[in-house]
Design goal:
It is a single chain. With about 160 residues, the chain is α+β, with helices and mostly antiparallel strands. It has one domain (about 5-160). Helix content is about 15%, strand content about 55%. The strands form two sheets. Strands 3, 4, 5, 6, 7, 8, 9 and 10 form an eight-stranded antiparallel β-sheet that branches.
């Protein structure tokens, strides 16, 4: 199978999993992970959080009827494991701009973050993801995901770390 066919199958699987898991909190190692905040404007967010350093995540796009956009930060290391994951789906009657803030851990102290992968499925590839606090090598991370002009948006976030 070609890489495009593999990606198409992956998108369909992620879409099916995401749609079936809509608004269902994820649980990893006994901790509920479903901390999502709406962020209306990344620049206003930065102004209202002085000292925040906004770091863009690496973005990879697929081509097709729906767009799969993969954002990554860091890299897998020996001994790390999946420490949290979350999914959600948003649908709108008309194209909309969407900005979400995802945070790990929801509360308490998390594992040392080594790698983060966000896969978004949307109508187009317009958008970005930024780390706004914490990050690789730290015990927390907060990310803002933006998607513009879409009437459908679904994401799956996976956080890997070392306890």
């Amino acid at each position: 199978m070609t890489a495009i066919m593999h990606l198409g199958v992956l998108c369909m699987v992620l879409l099916a999993v995401t749609v079936s898991a809509k608004n269902v909190p994820s649980v990893v190692r006994g901790k509920q992970i479903n901390d999502v905040s709406i962020v209306h404007d990344i620049q206003n967010f930065a102004r209202s959080h002085p000292g925040t350093k906004i770091i863009p995540m690496k973005k990879e796009e697929s081509m097709g009827r729906t767009q799969s956009v993969r954002y990554t930060l860091g890299g897998r290391v020996s001994g790390d494991s999946l420490v949290a994951q979350g999914t959600d789906t948003f649908s709108y009657a008309a194209p909309n701009d969407l900005n979400l803030q995802l945070s790990y851990p929801e509360n308490g102290t998390g594992a040392i973050v080594t790698f983060v992968e966000l896969v978004a499925i949307q109508n187009n590839n317009l958008g970005n993801a930024y780390v706004v606090s914490g990050g690789i090598g730290q015990r927390s991370i907060s990310i803002i995901i933006e998607a513009q002009e879409t009437d459908y948006f679904s994401y799956k976030a996976q956080y890997f770390g070392i306890d």
